[in-house]
Write a structure and sequence with these properties.
Blueprint: H1 2-11, H2 24-32, H3 43-52, H4 61-72, E1 86-87, H5 91-98, H6 102-114, E2 119-121, E3 142-144, H7 147-190, H8 193-207, H9 212-233, H10 288-298, H11 306-311, H12 322-328, H13 343-356, H14 361-370, H15 373-388, H16 396-408, H17 414-434, H18 439-442
Antiparallel strand pairs: 1-3, 2-3
Domain Plasmid replication protein C N-terminal: 20-183
Pfam family, one: RP-C_C
InterPro entries: RepC_C (IPR021760), RepC_N (IPR005090)
Length: 454
């Protein structure tokens, strides 16, 4: 046992406490600094690139966050030509910047050095002593961030790959949403509740993942549901029965010409009625059920049934003017350039307002896909109006995403919220009128402005 322990001790690398272990990747990154740089991006460009690739860099997310903080602490002039971005901070300063422990900070530095994203430059005899900004002709001690310039082409390629991935994810989500509209319409027509529940589950799952394999599987499931419903609607129908309609209950009691008529026994058909121009019997009751099923499969022939279209939207046919939305949401007025904005201008203002009320850009884009741009804007306006009136929404982004899920399940009723806000606004105006405040001071619409429906 003693001999084996001595052998292991002799084979182990000779390191002292505080001395950094140098790997081949770290040596290659150090030698790389003596070659011409392929690009010289600015500090802002480098920060935007690292933040966009935080989760896909060849290091952990914590190490990527540490690198971003180190880049933020450098001077913008250090990223210009003939300059070197360098960090001279001591470990305690880095720990105060990042909020990490010493061991975690050292592990992150090790990851970044192995990935050749920075080069640690140590002091005398390779010791990691106190770092300082050396004078001319002296060795600088700290972390050299110039390696990021050599990684810039790789970062650009990785960014382009991620952009293509996001486009593919958006394409699959849009296709699933378009198929969902068809599947839900056909399933509601046929009364197939299980298929409706499956479509709702697929729509929920598509918003919770960004993996291409998972989204492709969800798209195939939705495509299978659409094909199954299309097959049921296109089933071959049996031809009309040419046999005369007989009431079996009275087949022995009465002859065919004398059978009684009534709602329980069906209509009385006869070919001896001499007031008709033709004696041919039209068998309506015999194939009436088949014709009804055919009409159900065909669905609405045109968009004339406006009530059914409105029932599938979150607004439920509510028509509000631009002035109405500006009146119920005072924060929206500062974002509109005119007192009578168009629908597109109102949507753009609501997009800016979404960031102010705590809705992320990703949640806004999801709402535009699921609800549509106009209904997403109205949802943001309703949320901002509630906040203005003292409503407490702790997790605002999660609250907005819950509205999106309710819209996907067709259980979001924005018209009820808008009616309530209208009544609340009416009460406010009434109270102001009682207090003697002029209506011109509280009204956004001018005396000669005409309201336009949105």
């Amino acid at each position: 046992m003693e001999h084996s322990a001595q052998t292991q001790r002799a084979q182990a690398p000779c390191t002292r406490r505080g001395r950094r272990r140098i790997s081949e990747a770290m040596l290659a990154a150090r030698d790389e600094l003596t070659t011409p740089v392929p690009a010289e991006p600015g500090k802002r460009d480098m920060l935007n690139m690292l933040k966009s690739l935080r989760g896909v860099l060849p290091v952990s997310r914590g190490a990527a966050s540490t690198l971003i903080i180190m880049v933020e602490k450098t001077s913008p002039d250090a990223w210009t030509a003939l300059e070197t971005p360098f960090i001279y901070a001591h470990n305690t300063t880095l720990m105060s910047w990042t909020g990490l422990s010493r061991s975690t900070l050292q592990r992150h530095i090790r990851e970044l050095a192995e990935a050749r994203l920075l080069v640690p430059q140590d002091g005398r005899n390779g010791q990691r002593g106190r770092r300082w900004q050396a004078e001319e002709g002296q060795t600088q001690v700290g972390f050299n961030l110039a390696s990021l310039r050599y990684r810039w082409p790789d970062l650009l390629a990785l960014s382009a790959e991620q952009r293509r991935l996001r486009q593919r994810v958006s394409f699959l989500r849009d296709n699933i949403a378009s198929l969902n509209d068809t599947v839900r319409a056909q399933a509601e027509t046929l009364g197939l509740e299980p298929i409706l529940e499956q479509a709702v589950g697929i729509m929920r799952s598509r918003l919770r993942t960004v993996q291409l394999g998972t989204l492709e599987g969800l798209y195939r499931e939705m495509l299978a549901l659409s094909a199954a419903l299309a097959g049921q609607c296109a089933e071959p129908e049996s031809g009309p029965d040419n046999a005369p309609v007989e009431n079996a209950v009275f087949s022995t009691s009465y002859p065919a010409e004398m059978r009684p008529m009534g709602p329980q026994n069906g209509a009385h058909y006869t070919d001896t009625k001499n007031i008709q121009t033709s004696k041919k019997v039209d068998h309506v009751a015999a194939d009436g059920g088949i014709r009804i099923e055919r009409m159900r499969c065909e669905g609405p022939s045109s968009g004339t049934d406006r009530s059914s279209v409105y029932d599938r939207t979150a607004l439920r046919g509510f028509k509000g003017t631009a002035t109405f939305y500006l009146e119920i949401c005072s924060s929206l007025r500062d974002l509109c350039s005119t007192g009578r904005p168009s629908a597109e201008q109102l949507i753009e203002a609501a997009e800016y307002l979404s960031g102010q009320v705590g809705v992320t850009c990703h949640a806004w884009s999801q709402a535009c896909v699921v609800l549509g741009r106009l209904q997403a804007a109205v949802a943001v306006i309703v949320m901002a109006s509630r906040l203005e009136r003292g409503a407490v929404i702790r997790f605002r982004d999660a609250y907005f995403r819950s509205l999106i899920e309710r819209g996907a399940r067709n259980t979001l009723f924005l018209d009820r919220s808008l009616y309530a806000l209208r009544d609340h606004r009416t009460r406010e105006v009434g109270m102001l009128a009682e207090a003697g405040v002029s209506m011109a001071a509280v009204s956004v619409q001018g005396p000669k402005m005409r309201a336009s429906w949105i």
